[in-house]
Amino acid sequence: METNYKRKDTSKAILDQIYGYIEKQGGIVKKEELSSLGIDYRRILDFVENGQLIRIKNGYYTDRADRFSEEELIARLFPDALLCMESALYAYGYLKQKPFGWSLAVDKNTSKSRFKMDYPKVIPYYTEPESMKIGASKIVLNGNHFQIYDKDRMICDCLKYESKMERETFKTAIQEYIKDPDKDISALLDYAKERKVLKKVQNMIGVWL
């Protein structure tokens, strides 16, 4: 019995240490950070199994399931990614209904395991490193800072990956862009050449301009 009490006391002390460190780090810690504190991975797994720690995704942990919104999680876990496709369309107000998953442009050399998450769902678009910088901008969405492609680069990507989009979503994207007073046709044509969709831009958008 005394041994069990000691074990519980030890577990509580370790858990309190983890909670303190999570708070210090702003709510999310990596497995490697906990290991650097001398906390055995098996102990971490026990805390997760008992519901005392929440695994956000493989190797990332927090203390409460309600600590972060979807936006906060995406912004914290993928600061190097850019909102693209449906996520960018929604962020700019082209789509009224929030997409089911988060479409993110990421360096093609990024480890694919980063995006294995049950919630929120992440849809990565693996991109050449030099192409990621073209049309890169920033936006604040529900108080969270994101990288995002500007509207003209965004619409070129929608044209490039048309086959991956729902038909109605694609049509809405084109229609909203055409009537957007902030569009930059000169930039659109430059991006279209870079993204190899110049003919589609001329056929689908040029006739309305």
Please outline what is shown here:
The protein is α/β, with parallel strands linked by helices.
Mean pLDDT score, rounded?
Answer: 89
- Rough outline: elongated
| Sheet with most strands: strand arrangement | 6-5-4-8-7
Structural class: alpha/beta
How much helix, percentage-wise, in residues? 40-55%
Count of DSSP-assigned helices: 10
What does the radius of gyration come to?
A: 22 Å
For the sheet with most strands, the description reads: 5 strands, mixed
Q: Please write the string of helix (H) and strand (E) elements.
A: HEHHEEHEHEEHEEHHHH
**Which percent band covers the strand fraction?**
15-25%
- Uncertain runs are 1-7
Q: Distance between termini? A: 80 Å
The total beta strand count reads 8
Can you describe this structure?
The protein is built from 10 helices and 8 strands. With 209 residues, the protein is an alpha/beta fold. The longest helix has 23 residues. The protein is elongated, with a radius of gyration of 22 Å.
